[in-house]
Amino acid sequence: EAFSLFDKDGDGQITTKELGTVMRSLGQNPSESELQDMINEVDADNNGTIDFP
Predict the structure, then answer these.
(1) What's the domain count of the chain?
(2) For a FRET experiment, which of 6, 14, 25, 51 has its CA 20 to 30 Å from that of 40?
(3) Which domain does 33 fall in, by range?
């Protein structure tokens, strides 16, 4: 359920764009580089997105 809050297009992946949208709605203003760093920390298969298994 929490994953779907980030996965706006419902494709099972969270992109930097989707993560940025959520972060900005929470009052944050991360750079593209910061968003990519956040995703890279949890990107198990190194495809540049966070996937829901």
Answers:
(1) 1
(2) 25
(3) 2-51
CATH number of the structural domain spanning residue 9: 1.10.238.10
Q: Where are the alpha helices (DSSP H) in 1-53?
A: 2-6, 16-25, 32-42
Could you tell me if residue 2 is left (phi over 0), alpha (psi between -120 and 50 degrees) or otherwise beta?
alpha
Neighbour-count burial of 45, counting CB atoms closer than 10 A to its CB (0-12 exposed, 13-18 middle, 19+ buried): exposed
Half-sphere exposure of 52 (CA within 13 A, CB side): 14
Q: Please write the tens of the pLDDT for every residue from 9-51.
A: 999 999 999 999 999 999 999 999 999 999 999 999 999 999 9
pTM for the whole thing? 0.86
Choose among 5, 17, 14, 18: nearest CA to 52: 14
